[in-house]
Design goal:
heterodimer; A: mainly beta; six-stranded parallel beta sheet; elongated; disordered N terminus; B: alpha+beta; Tumour Suppressor Smad4; 2 domains; 15-stranded mixed beta sheet; 5 helices; 19% helix
Chain lengths: 162, 254
Amino acid sequence: MFKKPSSQIALEQNNEETEEEQMPVEQASSDKIETVVGPSVTVEGDFASEGDIVVKGTVSGNVKTSQLLTVEEGAKIFANVKAGSAIVAGAIKGNVKVAETLELTSSAQVGGDIDCKTLIVAGGALLRGKITMKGFDVDQFKPEKKISLGRPKTKKKASKTE
Amino acid sequence: MYVYLYDNFLRQKKFASTVKAMETRLTDYGIAGKIIRLQNFSDTKMIVDEELSKGATTIVVVGNDETIGHVLSRAATCDILFGFLPVGPGNDIAKVLGIPVGEDACDVLSRRRKLRLDAGWMNNRYFISRLHIPPSDIMIEYDEKFEVSSDKSKLELVVCNLQPFTWHRKNKKDWVVHPQDGKLEAFVLPIIKKGLFGRVKTEDPSVFPFEEMIVSSKKPFVVEADGKRSKETRVKIRLAKSRVEMVVGKDRRF
């Protein structure tokens, strides 16, 4: 009906339907669908999704997802980012808060504070900002008491009084 | 009581044998009923309302994608069970609903496996399978939260409700997105360049699941919903959850 050389809408023959036959509709329909921002597409405004997000273009506004965020090479995000986990190969100008793993590839550029659980940085990735990671327990350590080589002061005082 | 809405093209001689075989099988199952032949300008909502008042329990659409689009675009507001008997070519929706083309569809109808389906709402009518806006200078606003535009001037937009979207890529595997329930999927295709004979080249699609979207433009643009074309300057598209109750097959795609 809308046949065009580049964009065609068609049906795919699914041969693995036997498994889905017994599936209730709600369960079968809860498959996650990726949100994709194409290379020449610009998104302006707060951008949130329940599924995975792939950014290939430009986003000017906060990006929020509980799933995986992929920022591909050449992509730009000009705002804060909040995600379940993230793989960044493009540029982000804003704070990045990731619940699980943040992976910065060699082409990544992040100008903002990072908050994550696990950070993987490839050689060549550019970073400017404060990094905060969960599970950091160094603050809990107390410095050990100093061991003085001389006699204890109390004993000295005692000897003077004698 | 069953009421059958026949599309006008079923008058053609080549479909006579299929229609006769269907009618015989429906009679065997004891679900034969009144037959109404639709014309191009038939007001389906009025017909369905009238039959509903006369005691109809099931409205069965007999035809192809265009027929079901034509009927449900208006009659989706009616609180009645719909059935579908696909005949002839142009039956993609039937595959999605798990209904075989031809007389075997009568078996599915007789089993009465009912399901409430989401529909898309566009300005003042419903669409069941998809909505298409050919390349135009359009602005898209999603859920009143963010706007989408392109560096390239024109955008092509496809909104899928029931029908999966397939992106045919050169030298790569086809990319198929199966629509999910509870949301509509919008595929935005920016035009890269125009070739000879009006052929256009688009880049990889952007995908946005949404519940409400506003498409606007300074110039009127063409909107095709379930094969029905109209020209608009502003289109509000939203999801109408569980709008239509239909008889579906067990091989449905959702």
